[in-house]
């Protein structure tokens, strides 16, 4: 696609600050949500994972990633939802903060080991294993699999009650982003998410004030609780400046409460390592998608080994501070795609901004106050662009050829349908011993299908553009008829 700012471009300082803020807004809701969910997993009420610490950890992790990738891969690392099941398992096993930190360490080391293998063997196998006919629908799946989050946030505003009003707020936010992106000035087109989310927030605020005055609960979309928590008992150090509750500090304070022995460490490794392995497909898919957006092959330069090292080490460092493993964020990639701004300076600015603002309590309170319906509307655009980017990768694939059609169909149906592979039973948690995500399952099925229909060879789907067509499937031509 055509970029307004390329990777190495340096916008003016004022613009950089605005662009960085936009990236921060795009990634913050999900990044802050993960630690909140993790805290909810603890039935004892003793564990607390601080959203501000997770935000700071994500910023530090992103800087580590950018350094490992030689500042050539413009994407932000945020808190990963993929590991929520692992967090729940470790917390339920009463392994405490150190159990979570160790789990993230094991998952990050998986990436480090694979990176070393790639360094030794090269990354040429990636294009063979993930040709256009496979990587296209896989990338599309990443966006489509997240779509339920966007529509769910719009439908219930993050709660449990369905509301047409919150849907209207979400749609308004989305349309504001669309309008700015299409009809706005050149400067406005670079910050559609700031304007769109701001417009949605204002609408939600107006409806909430009306709802409070008229005592109509359905209109009370925006919660002021985060501001009450910060300013209720006003103190400068607490209400204005606040030290995040870093996970490693929490772990040190709780030393002795959650003892870990060899068996515990083995259980933690068994819980986290498989997830790190199956996430390889998403890591590659994200970077293939980003490569398509920035018009350069990131798998080759800076190289898959460097992106893996950056992701793995960045996740370890981020988890040490914030308690949540990090991963390349689709929201960040979508932001780059929609705005055409791939400047590394903007991503670095967002990372630094997250670190600084994690100490600024009012800002964290403001982000926490953004209604989920507003973020859901913004995510329609972000997740939708990811899905469309994947479909765009199929532009040179002959979907009239039934061989390619079966590969793409298998991936999309298995992924959208949520087909997972569960193996064994964990005696401690009662859950599966090993669970392979729907995305990884779809990838495995796609590879197997591609091999079968092409007689044991991996086809890109781009070399048979004049072959048979799907519309003729099942139709047998009478050889007697001319």
Q: Could you provide a short overview of the structure?
A:
The chain contains 21 helices and four strands.
Give keywords.
482 residues, two-stranded antiparallel sheet, 21 helices, 3% strand
Give an account of the 3D structure.
Mean pLDDT is 87; it is low at 464-482. The two termini are 46 Å apart. 66% of the residues lie in helices and 3% in strands. The protein has a two-stranded antiparallel ribbon. The longest helix has 29 residues, at 13-41. It contains 21 helices and four strands. It is mainly alpha-helical and 482 residues long. The chain has one domain (13-462). The radius of gyration is 23 Å and the shape is globular.
What layout of secondary structure does this protein have?
Elements (H helix, E strand, L loop, with lengths): L12 H29 L9 H18 L8 E3 L4 H9 L3 H26 L2 H6 L2 H25 L7 H20 L2 H4 L2 H23 L10 H7 L4 H5 L6 H7 L8 H17 L1 H15 L4 H24 L3 E3 L1 H10 L4 H14 L3 H9 L2 H21 L9 H15 L4 E5 L6 E5 L1 H16 L29
Antiparallel strand pairs: 1-2, 3-4
Helix pairs in contact: 1-2, 1-3, 1-17, 2-15, 2-17, 3-4, 4-12, 4-13, 4-15, 6-7, 6-14, 6-19, 6-20, 6-21, 7-9, 7-19, 9-19, 10-18, 14-15, 14-16, 16-19, 20-21
